């Protein structure tokens, strides 16, 4: 599905929440979803970055997005419940979620992992994602057919030396997706993972500082898979972990 050619109206009037929407893959996904007709809810920590994405969407003729400034690191389940109620009040439902927000932490030997950093990575990459998903389910159940996409990594399928903290958070993400997919089988919600692969982002540069970014695909290059999994053409796809850049 990496060569998927999405119809222009694929996501017309669908309400889609994107986390980590201020830059990188999240920002590109929001702009791409909006270009295909979606009403995007932009969630992120930095208001100025979210406003820039908002401006790009409106300037391109997309529907006016909503902005949710939220730091997942400090958010509690009650924050997510309040957010869900606001979404229901404002839009009546939620048609899709792209869980894109993640942090890398530092690459280090397992014995040297800093306890606080472990907690921070798990809070953002796992706990926040879990609590947010729990809270959002009532809004997602109000849609005719809702797609929830989690972001995984090759190190979330096979552990890699020195990637302990990030890898474990992504193994857990795969587990969350599989559990939910099984629970909601044959219902109106579907849950899948996307592995973007090596992409020209700030996080990739942090992990591989010596790498030439020009050798990598851009976030825009990998959007066909993001469109496919969010739209109706993947209605039968549930419990899958798909690669944007198959080896």
Automatic annotation (TrEMBL):
InterPro entries: NAD(P)-bd_dom_sf (IPR036291), Sc_DH/Rdtase_CS (IPR020904), SDR_fam (IPR002347). Signal peptide: none annotated. Pfam families: adh_short. It comes from the Bacteria. The keyword Oxidoreductase applies. Keywords: Oxidoreductase. One of its GO terms (molecular function) is oxidoreductase activity. Gene3D superfamilies: NAD(P)-binding Rossmann-like Domain. Belongs to the short-chain dehydrogenases/reductases (SDR) family. NCBIfam families: PRK08945.1. This is YciK family oxidoreductase. It comes from Alteromonas portus.
């Amino acid at each position: 599905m990496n060569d998927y050619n999405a119809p222009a109206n694929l996501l017309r009037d669908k309400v889609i929440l994107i986390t980590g929407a201020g830059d990188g893959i999240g920002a590109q996904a929001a702009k791409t979803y909006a270009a295909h007709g979606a009403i995007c809810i932009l969630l992120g920590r930095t208001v100025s970055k979210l406003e820039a994405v908002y401006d790009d969407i409106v300037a391109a003729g997309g529907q006016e997005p909503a902005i949710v400034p939220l730091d997942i690191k400090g958010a509690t389940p009650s924050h997510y419940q309040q957010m869900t109620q606001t979404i229901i009040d404002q839009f009546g439902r939620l048609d899709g979620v792209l869980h894109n927000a993640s942090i890398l932490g530092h690459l280090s030997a397992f014995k040297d992992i800093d306890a606080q950093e472990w907690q921070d990575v798990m809070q953002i990459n796992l706990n926040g994602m879990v609590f947010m998903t729990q809270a959002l389910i009532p809004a997602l159940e109000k849609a005719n057919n809702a797609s929830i996409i989690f972001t995984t990594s090759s190190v979330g399928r096979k552990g890699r030396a020195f990637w302990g903290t990030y890898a474990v958070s992504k193994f857990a993400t795969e587990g969350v997706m599989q559990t939910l997919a099984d629970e909601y089988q044959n219902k109106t919600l579907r849950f899948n993972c996307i592995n973007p692969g090596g992409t020209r982002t700030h996080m990739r540069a942090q992990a591989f500082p010596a790498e030439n970014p020009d050798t990598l695909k851009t976030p825009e290059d990998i959007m066909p898979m993001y469109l496919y999994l969010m739209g109706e053409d993947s209605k039968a796809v549930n419990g899958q972990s798909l690669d944007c850049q198959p080896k």
